[in-house]
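The records we work with from here on pair a chain with its fold. A complete example follows; check for yourself that the lines match position by position.
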Amino acid sequence: MKIIEILQNNSRTPYTEIAKELGLTEATIRKRISELEKKGVIKKYTIEIDPEKLGFKHVTILGMDVEPQYLLEAARKLAEFEEVKWVATSTGDHMIMCEIWSRDGEELFALLSKKIGKIKGVKDLCPAIIMEKIK
């Protein structure tokens, strides 16, 4: 849906600009977006932050395996850490995936070894440091 694509690129795009691009009236765009919000297609409007400009030199995607009985408990505990930006349970190579922002390698190592590694049921941590985001 073209409206969603436009809003994904910039959620602050004025309705008049969307209407012009799609050849519709502003009222039509307003109504369609309102319906998408009511149906839960659009859940929220957000921003994209550049972690490096805030001093976070490492963005890490962490795959984590835990004892099955501790899956949800470990995921919830992980979500409590300020450095962890999102947490998801998953299938595939790892049971839990998360994104971590850290200022340097030392800070990342300390978080992994002294906090995350100590969560009850943790079996394995597999960090991957993001080198460059393409899109």
